[in-house]
Write a structure and sequence with these properties.
The protein is mainly α. It is built from seven helices and three strands; from the N terminus they run H-H-E-H-H-E-E-H-H-H. A three-stranded antiparallel β-sheet has the order 1-3-2.
Length: 171
């Protein structure tokens, strides 16, 4: 199996009906086995030692609860398969494939089109405007670069302390 979904659907009413004959420990074992089957493409091997390990119970305990759980699965070719889980897995695969195709159709376009071109255009414009707002130091003594927070020479000469604004510029 290529990739399984990370979750499987749970329908509480249906689950309660299907597991009404199970006790709490058996329900827990059933959920653990369903989890393993979901990760394994919808089936698990029917070896009792393997099933006990998946259910988190001892081999002795599995002999007691395995019969109750076996009614929820079909066995074929040495594997347990849950008809309900197999159907849900098929739906999930089809849904995933449809979403993959939609994503490829939407995003699988050649590079530098649409939004990518707009982002590059904006980035270039933004970079150029930043250079215009804060040019490199000029020879004129009364020029102030707001973003650098420099103080004009006249203020230093007259011992005036200019007010510094919130952004660090001279107010």
């Amino acid at each position: 199996m290529s990739k399984t979904n990370i979750w499987w659907p749970m329908y509480p009413a249906d689950f309660a009906i299907d597991t009404a004959h199970l006790n709490t420990e058996e329900i827990g074992a059933y959920v653990l086995i369903l989890n393993a089957a979901w990760r394994n493409g919808g089936y698990i091997f029917s070896d009792p030692k393997h099933l006990a390990r998946l259910a988190g119970v001892s081999a002795y305990k599995w002999k007691k609860i395995g019969g109750s759980l076996s009614t929820l699965f079909t066995e074929e070719d040495g594997k347990w398969r849950s008809p309900w889980l197999s159907e849900e897995l098929t739906k999930a695969k089809a849904n995933s494939e449809k979403k993959r195709q939609n994503a490829n159709q939407r995003w699988g376009k050649p590079k530098d089109t649409g939004m990518q071109m707009q982002c590059k255009s904006n980035a270039n414009a933004y970079g150029e405007s930043m250079q215009m707002q804060c040019p490199s130091p000029s020879p004129s003594p009364d020029t102030t670069c707001i973003s650098s927070g420099t103080v004009p020479d006249e203020a230093r000469e007259n011992d005036e302390t200019p007010e510094i604004g919130i952004l660090g510029g001279v107010a």
